[in-house]
Amino acid sequence: MPEISYHLPSRPLPQPRESTLGYLLRLGDRNGHRSLAWVAQIRRQHSRPDVTLHQFLQLTTGHPEPSLHQIYGPSLPALQPAPSHLLGLKTQFWNSEHRRWCPACLRESGYWKAEWQLTLQIVCPEHGKLLQEHCPGCHKPLRWHGGELFHCFCGQDLRQARTPQADGPLQALGQLISAAFVTSTGGEPAATALQQDWPSELATLHLTRLCELLWSLGCYATFSTVTKPQKVQRHHHLKVLLPILANTARLLSNWPAVFDTFLQERVQPGREYALSLRQFLGQQLAWLHRTLAHPEFHFVRQELERFIALHWKGRITDRHHFISHGVKQRHPVISVVEASQQSCLSRDKLVTLVQQGALQGWSADHHGRRDFLMISRTSLEQFLLASGGMLNLIDSAAYLGVSKGRLKLFVERGLIKPTYRPSGGKNDPVQWMFQQQVLDTFLTSVQVNAHATPDCGSLISIDQICRGYTRNGAGMVELLQAIQQGDLKMIGHNPAKVGIGGLLLSRQSFRHWFEQRQPEKTVFSLAGAARYLGIKEHVLYWLRDRGLIYDWHQAESKRMTSIHKETLDRFRQRYVWGRELAELSGYGRQSASRALINRGVWPVSGPRTDGGITYVFLREDLEHYLRVERG
Q: Do 354 and 360 form a contact (C-beta atoms < 8 A)?
């Protein structure tokens, strides 16, 4: 394909921060072309329909590359500009429909500034006047394809138009946008003082973020009854933009008092007791907080969070991701569930205390029903401080996450010392009294930080140990003593579980400790044999029924099946499955069986062999495959 060899006779350099369309118009005007039609003519003559803006300008003007980086803004549809020319702005923030200009600047500088093409820039920062977008002669919007460099198609000189003076807030807004535009293009903005009562963080916002914030605040303040306020028709026209930007300047003035008033006007009366934050904020404010997700909007988001914490009587939970952790911790309202966890009092007792007036609480509104109790955090803290932190047996067991019987066992073994213990045959759990500080000291001796992956297969919790390895509470006491003495090391804590039941140990180190404490067994029951092999009991039944494990013994006096340890060891030496299969093959535990089958190693039992639950392979077949695979 032939290269463009045509160079324009007159090739003026681009001016700093000149509009792309304005430069094309000025380039054509200097060479006798009165409109932008010359661009299409040259492209057709040289058969280059796919040329970019940068290539077109470099090959038609011969200017060096750095000088072409001074133009900004959208171009003709056929000449796509580089992303750097658009400064990362969305299409809605560039006005490419029609021209907008300052007659005084156009008369003084003689070129079209890219800043005038910004959708939200409606004021000249130098002269403080509204930009012109209609021809002063025919009073029609002037598109880039219509008219000449300085004249409308009706012949009117665009430099002679008269524009009204903008008010003070709009002028300040125009200077703010202009400074952000100059900064984003690598220049030094003129020293302009930000309005004294405006947030100082506005001066440091990037142009992209500044446009998003100004547009969002203005739209939500202007279109209060619209479902989607930011979907504005004809938003490039001054008639539509003026009330939006006026409301934006109003919200930013006297910050944050006016913004707080704006939020209060958007909340319906009585919604402060709504259970859901979405019900409290309403649809518009819910969309607004999504708009403020970017970190640069932290100062606006802080005011929204402060408003929520001050006026909403509902509970802030972890699912409210946009609210900072500090605000969640200081929120004056908690649910009855959280109050129960913090105070170790039952929900019924908390309800009774609210009814008696000892605690301040109210019912949250959820779709017309008030059946979700909320508690004032301050009143609960004052009540606990006055009660001295004394807990009975039921509340103490819930605080530790254990049963009442196990807590009594802790007392008998000397792990915990109660403040008062009933005597004389009385066994009323309410009569027991424990000091919360004593319980906290006991938890501290075995407590660690929360673990990121508590469901990992290499970990086992205290709760799982108590269900699978002990028959009574004595085993748990010995386990806690081993932790306190350092024989067992805690890995972490499951944040989903309360108290010591969520403590996590290494499964391998626990089994080693557990097996050392157990006497050497030569005969196992079915449950013991399954635990010894590391499989489920129903899997063991299946293997027995298929004849893979044999030599079972049925006691005559007892209806119990047993098997010798030697038989289990022979089975383990002959076959491989589960975790060991993954370790030997090098595949993941979930994919090892499928990978081996796809490579021709067939299992002796499994879902695709005999309908079994677990894939079992001959160790000999696996070792032969590994020798061949690894050379």
A: yes
